[in-house]
Amino acid sequence: MNEALRKFKAQLAGKFSTYDASVRQTADATFFMARNQSAKRLIVMGKKGVCALFEGEKIGTIDQLDVLACPLNDHNCGRLMELLVSLKPSICDKKLSFGFGDRIGVATAAHAQIVNKDEVFPVFAQQSVREITRTERSWREVLHSAVWGVFESGYDGAFGADADHVKKIEDLESAAHVGYTMFTIDPSDHVKDPTKIDRRELVNFFQEHPKRREIASKYIGKSFTVLDEKLSFDEDSFAEIFTTYISAIEHVESCYKALRAVRSRGFDLEVSIDETSLPTTPLAHIFFVQELRRRGVDFQTLALRFPGEWQKGIDYIGDTDQFSKELEKHVAIVKMLSGYKLSLHSGSDKFSVYPVLAEKTERTVHVKTAGTSYLEAIRTVAKFAPDLYREIHKFALSRFEQDRASYHVTTNLSRVPNVDEVSDSNLSDLLDQPDVRQVIHITYGSVLTAKESGKTLFKDRIMKVLFEHEDEHYNFLKSHLGKHLKLLGA
Ligand SMILES: [Zn+2]
Question: What is the pLDDT of residues 144-169, one digit of tens each?
């Protein structure tokens, strides 16, 4: 065991228990995570100069070194990231990468414990603008909670920080300033969905677009061989694809330029068109990539809309064979155009398609999960604080109709059992039922931000349960997310 840690345990035991894996050393100090009855602390044992960098309380002296117990605040996180470069997020250097979104900020240590850094590049900080708004968090808070988790776990590999599903330039800029290394631009508001927009409006848009002729000359009559199938752009297919995607492409171009202006160092860029109603066709995929390239947009991952239903928190609904065939075509296009990989969104719990995804992409793919870790937190609550779970469950039901508006789900509330009739010992199994999973999954923002006379209705109590039952919470997370990684072959 690390010598400084051993001495700390011998002399200051009783006040704190330590996270032994977290210990890190520099020339001037030793750092590790510890916890007392009510909170976690960063312990700094070092010379005066190092200790002066941190905000904390002096709790002793060991071998003439000051020992500080420091709160896990932004200031201390920033200092620690400056001293320990492995805590800084970086760009992806692996074929396989995996996003572990964490809506409450205490799951990363468990996530990090199951990552084999040689096989998968983890993105530990990953929240969408929608999630940040609904949970009343900030880019900085999301990043820092992930960094504290990385520190606690002792993980020393590279990891990323993804500002996910960003629609506005100002949100990209603020995430860039805080140190995010991956940006997911979601131009879906600019996709002109032919199933939702009046046909005449689409025709007018096409005919009046100033770049229409110039761009048409690059596509019409061109053909591409994808898996022995010859795909060609004719007047009609070009008009439809151009009209559907051109504004989205222009939006991505503006976002990219703005990002380059604020973040000169490298970053990973993802473009996501997964939240459209129609699956992305092979020709649309080709057009989208070629047009981004022509505009100099350097992107690393692309999230397409695949056939079938990709609902939150539950397995894939659809024809796995059809998904497999479509995926094969898109993978062939990626190989043909090269230089980027596919990204699968709403990837949590899609166990039935993971083996296909891993095989067809040859494990060159990015997968994003988010709400599934929140569900494991709530499973922990159901197990150790049954009455609190019942309160959350009823509250979630009362908010479901309102909160589902921005999600596509087919939840059947009549299949959700009366929570008062479920025994304490069976409560956590409710989190295995798809309808209950979606009710809890979608109402996270309402639950986490509900307040009464200035105090949170649930969040503080949830956090207390998770703190008191941390091992069990971590075990739930490790087993559930571990299943994801295993099925992906990592
Ligand atoms: Zn998405």
Answer: 999 999 999 999 999 999 999 999 99
Would you call 409 helix, strand, or coil by DSSP?
coil
Cα angle 94, 97, 98; round to 5:
160
Residue 455, beta-bridge partner list = 452
In the reported structure, the alpha carbon of residue 100 is separated from the centroid of ligand 1 by a whole-number distance in angstroms of: 14
Cα–Cα dist 44/22, whole Å: 12
- Summarize pLDDT for 397-433 with one digit per residue, the tens: 999 999 998 888 899 999 999 999 999 999 999 999 9
Cα-to-chain-centroid distance, residue 59? 37
Torsion region of 129: left, alpha or beta (phi above 0 gives left; psi -120 to 50 gives alpha): alpha
Instruction: Write down the CATH superfamily of domain 86-372.
Output: Aldolase class I (3.20.20.70)
Cβ neighbours of residue 237 closer than 8 Å, sequence gap 6 or more: 283
Q: Output the CA 44–ligand 1 centroid distance in Å.
A: 40
Tell me how far the alpha carbon of residue 218 lies from the centroid of ligand 1, in angstroms: 30
Three-state DSSP class for residue 376: helix
Instruction: Output the CA 470–ligand 1 centroid distance in Å.
Output: 30
> Ligand 1 centre from 396 Cα, in Å?
23
Domain residues of the chain, as ranges? 3-83, 86-372, 382-472
The pLDDT confidence band at residue 490, using thresholds 50, 70 and 90, is: confident
User: Taking Cα atoms as reference points, which of 404, 427, 425, 407 lies closest to residue 417?
Assistant: 427
Nearest to 79 by CA among 48, 39, 50, 43: 50
Within 8 A by CB and 6+ apart from 43, the residues are 8, 16, 18, 31, 32, 33, 34, 67, 68, 69, 70
Catalytic annotation, pick one of 186, 268, 270, 274: 270
d(CA 454, ligand 1 centre) in Å: 33
pLDDT at 116: 96
Q: How far apart are the CA of 109 and the centre of ligand 1, in A?
A: 24
Whether residue 13 is predicted with pLDDT greater than 80 in this model: the reply is no
The per-residue pLDDT for 330 is 98
Burial 112-141 (b: 16+ CB within 10 A, else e): bbbbeeeebbbbbbbbbbebbebbebebbb
Distances (CA, A) of 104 to 235, 373, 378, 430: 50, 9, 11, 21
Query: Residue 264 pLDDT > 80, yes or no?
Result: no
Specify whether 164 is catalytic.
yes
Does the annotation mark 401 as catalytic? no
Of residues 102, 164, 274, 291, which has the active-site annotation? 164
pLDDT tens digits, 439-460: 999 999 999 999 999 999 999 9
pTM (global) more than 0.90 = yes
Among 321-330, 369-378, 402-411, the least confident range: 402-411
